[in-house]
């Protein structure tokens, strides 16, 4: 099975249950997988706006890479 994990730091934990007519019921142990993106930008926006209002838009850059990199961020309105 192949699936795409979310880009943000997310941990998924689960197990499975199966039944068989001869063997009965089986339950797996808990297992987990973590989705992680080493470099991303997160925007914090207000939940509402009024026309003509000045709003704060906060961009937070997360860099979990081993090296420093140059980044340029621009807003288009």
UniProtKB/TrEMBL annotation:
<dbReference type="Pfam" id="PF00207">
    <property type="entry name" value="A2M"/>
</dbReference>
<dbReference type="GO" id="GO:0004866">
    <property type="term" value="F:endopeptidase inhibitor activity"/>
</dbReference>
<dbReference type="InterPro" id="IPR050473">
    <property type="entry name" value="A2M/Complement_sys"/>
</dbReference>
<feature type="domain" description="Alpha-2-macroglobulin">
    <location>
        <begin position="1"/>
        <end position="75"/>
    </location>
</feature>
<dbReference type="InterPro" id="IPR001599">
    <property type="entry name" value="Macroglobln_a2"/>
</dbReference>
<protein>
    <recommendedName>
        <fullName>Alpha-2-macroglobulin domain-containing protein</fullName>
    </recommendedName>
</protein>
<dbReference type="InterPro" id="IPR014756">
    <property type="entry name" value="Ig_E-set"/>
</dbReference>
<dbReference type="InterPro" id="IPR013783">
    <property type="entry name" value="Ig-like_fold"/>
</dbReference>
């Amino acid at each position: 099975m192949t699936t795409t994990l979310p880009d943000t730091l997310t941990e998924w934990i689960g197990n499975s249950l199966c039944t068989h007519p001869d063997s009965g019921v089986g339950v797996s142990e808990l297992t987990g997988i973590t989705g992680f993106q080493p470099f991303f930008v997160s925007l914090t926006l207000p939940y509402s706006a009024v026309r003509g209002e000045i709003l704060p838009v906060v961009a937070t850059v997360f860099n979990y890479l081993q090296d420093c990199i140059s980044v340029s961020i621009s807003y288009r309105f």
